[in-house]
Every structure is written in structure tokens, then in C-alpha cells.
Write a structure and sequence with these properties.
By secondary structure, the chain is an alpha/beta fold. Helix content is 42%, strand content 15%. It has eleven helices and eight strands. Helix 5 packs across helix 7 and helix 10 packs parallel to helix 11. The chain binds 2-phosphoglycolic acid. 2-phosphoglycolic acid binds next to strand 8.
Length: 250
């Protein structure tokens, strides 16, 4: 049975006191064992605090990014080893904002994925098409090539550590959501692509999250689709009540 996951990407929001408040509210709201794995991804300066706070709770902590090198002269960057040393075992890679604003390419992401896996971390790998690509009917080809370039050379056994997050760029932070049918159509395509390129067993087991303007009002419909295994939530994860409602919608 593949895992259900609801992950909150806080992006560059919440200073330390705000993060403390949100984590306190979330640990209380998720005190009963939730139906999904609950993950929060605070900014890197608050990761250590967050990792200590959620110990013993149902919540896990993820980083929003990491560098592909082991260590060295990379001013401002954070390594897999550093994350592991503070108890962070999961990292989001390939978010569309990293691709668009920080020039992250599929080739770079393949290196980052390899480094994360070498450190036995779980990767939430994000990908998705832009509006123009959907309008010109290239969305399936774009998604296929993003997956192929970054992930298809992995050994089948490495896929245990991979979670996929399909996030159409036109739906991120815009209030525009892919319809549940559009999400299901793409998730089914992703699963079939993985079945053909890697193996049917890997395709069946890999969790595929949907991301892009998921809110308490639309989460249930989206999560009800058979190939949607949860969500990666941006804006609505910054409020304990709405993130808890989304977590309960699965
Ligand atoms: P959003 O962001 O929920 O604010 O659209 C999703 C994401 O970027 O992961």
C-alpha cells in the first residue's frame, strides 16, 4: 500500500517565534494519529528547532532545498550531512520556484537527488508544466522529460526514498487549481510512465502528491482521486487550522 502524505511547504515565511507558534498548534491538532504522514518544511534556519519540537509527534520535518556537494566552498549552502545531523531526513527538491528563480535544471536536480539518496534521505521531487506548455498541449511531454532527466537512471530500489509532487506551475500560489480530473489524468499518466520506464511495482508503490492552490475547500475532492496520494501545500499550510483541515481531508 502506498503512503498517503500531506506536506506543508512554508517557503520563505515564518520567523522563529511564528514558527514556534505554528508548530505548537500543529502538534496539538495532529495529536491523534492522522490518516496520512504529515510533513512540514520550514525555512532552513528553523529546521533544527522544528526537528526537536516534532520529536515523538505524528509530524515530520523536511528541508526545502539542499546542495548537491558533500561540503566545501559553497557560501550560503546547506549539505545533506548537515540536515541529517539535526534530524532532518526529508528534502524537497525541484520546486518550481527553485527552477524559475535559482536556475535549477533537471541535470542539477539529478545530482541533488543522488546526493540525498546517498545520505539515505527521502526526496519529495517536484515537477510540473507551465501555463504555456499546457495551453499548447505539451504538458505530458514536459512532465515525462522532467522525470526522465532527473529520476529514470535511479535503481529500482532507490525509488523507496522518492515521493513525487506534481505541481502545475500555473496553479501555484495563483488560486487556480487543476480540476480533480486534470490532476487524476496527469497522475495516472505519471504512474504509467514510471511503470513503463522503471517497473510496474515501483509505479504502484510510489506516492504521487498534487500541489497547487490546495485548500480545505477543494482538498477532499482532489485526494479522492485514485492516483492522488496526498498534497504538497503552500499558502494554506501557513495556518494551523487550514493545514489541519487539509490533513483531515485525506
Ligand atoms: P500553493 O503552493 O499551495 O500556495 O499554491 C504549492 C507549492 O508551491 O508547493
Amino acid at each position: 500500500m502506498r503512503k498517503k502524505i500531506v506536506a506543508g511547504n512554508w517557503k520563505m515565511n515564518k520567523n522563529l517565534p511564528e514558527a514556534k507558534g505554528l508548530l505548537a498548534d500543529l502538534t496539538a491538532k495532529f495529536a491523534q494519529q492522522p490518516n496520512a504522514e504529515i510533513i512540514v518544511a520550514p525555512t532552513s534556519v528553523n529546521l533544527q528547532f522544528a526537528a526537536e519540537t516534532v520529536k515523538g509527534s505524528a509530524i515530520k520535518v523536511a528541508a526545502q532545498n539542499m546542495h548537491q556537494a558533500e561540503n566545501g566552498a559553497f557560501t550560503g549552502e546547506i549539505s545533506a550531512d548537515m540536515l541529517k545531523s539535526i534530524g532532518v531526513e526529508t528534502v524537497i527538491l525541484g520546486h518550481s520556484e527553485r527552477r524559475a528563480y535559482f536556475g535549477e535544471t533537471d541535470a542539477l536536480l539529478a545530482d541533488k537527488v543522488a546526493t540525498a539518496l546517498k545520505h539515505d534521505m527521502t526526496v519529495i521531487f517536484c515537477f510540473g508544466e507551465e501555463l504555456e506548455e499546457r495551453k499548447s498541449d505539451k504538458h505530458f511531454a514536459v512532465v515525462e522529460s522532467q522525470l526522465k532527466n532527473a529520476l529514470f537512471s535511479l535503481d529500482a530500489s532507490a525509488w523507496k526514498q522518492i515521493v513525487l509532487a506534481y505541481e502545475p506551475v500555473w496553479a501555484i500560489g495563483t488560486g487556480e487549481t487543476a480540476s480533480p480530473e486534470q490532476a487524476q489524468e496527469m497522475h495516472a499518466f505519471i504512474r504509467k510512465t514510471i511503470a513503463d520506464a522503471v517497473s510496474p511495482a515501483v509505479a504502484e508503490e510510489v506516492s504521487i502528491l498534487y500541489g497547487g492552490s490546495v485548500k480545505p475547500a477543494n482538498a477532499q475532492e482532489i485526494f479522492a482521486k485514485p492516483d492522488v496520494d496526498g498534497g504538497l501545500i503552500g499558502g494554506a499550510s501557513l495556518d494551523a487550522e487550514s493545514f489541519a483541515a487539509i490533513g483531515a481531508a485525506i
